[in-house]
Amino acid sequence: MKKFFVFLLILVALFYILSEFVGDRIIKGALEKNLSNVLDRDINIETLKINYLSGDAEIKGLKIRNKEFEGNLLNLNKAYLKLNTTSIFSNNVEIESVLLDGINLNYYFNIKYTLVTDNVRSLEKTLKNGGGKSTSNKYFNINKLNAKNITLNVISKDLEINKSISLQNLEFENIGNTPNSKNYKTVLRDFAEQTIKTVKKKVLSGNLQNKLKNIDEDKIKEKIKEELNKNKNKLKNKLKKLIK
Questions:
Q1: Confidence band, pLDDT 50/70/90 cuts, at residue 199
Q2: Mean pLDDT of 166-192
Q3: Residue 15: its pLDDT value, please?
Q4: Rounded to two decimals, what is the model's pTM?
Q5: What torsion, rounded to 10 degrees, do the Cα atoms 81, 82, 84, 85 define?
Q6: Would you tell me the crossing angle of helices 119-129 and 24-39 to the nearest 10 degrees?
């Protein structure tokens, strides 16, 4: 009988060690892969720790890389989760609460011939058009999600703009991908749209007017002329090839 209890304790200890160390690594890798596919951007998580007994989980150093710009789209300092740990290995992951603490959202943009391109609008298109697809068949629902200490960094090298503004804390309920959840992609799209509106209102309206006053019109004309000549030469080369 004594040997049986010793054997049982060893099994429990092994299960705990495997869950704490091997399990965390497997889940971290799967989470990075799935998020990267959904957002169609490289995502890296520095550390993920799950307490399988209490249901507490902590993520540190989550980074979302830009797809068409340099640097990161988003840096998340910490995330705290309270979840049903047994549901992790089922098809329906139950998450009681999520707290995102310390978000740096980097809004990169360029303006070329009145056309504005930016990294947030690019993400919005991905979420809307389904450019990114989940590699997991799991369902999940977050009962309550809070985000605090959010900073929006607006950056444009061409216009020499680098400005940071603080955003209000966010609170959402019942987010996920189940039939009864608010679709998480819709929530992200709405946040992206609101971010663009904030940038236009608080940053671009004033900064662009100041930058436009200092623009050298002769330099703009010269730049347009250069671009037209480049296109003209390309067209000539194509015609020569067709004639041959």
A1: confident
A2: 92
A3: 45
A4: 0.76
A5: 50
A6: 90
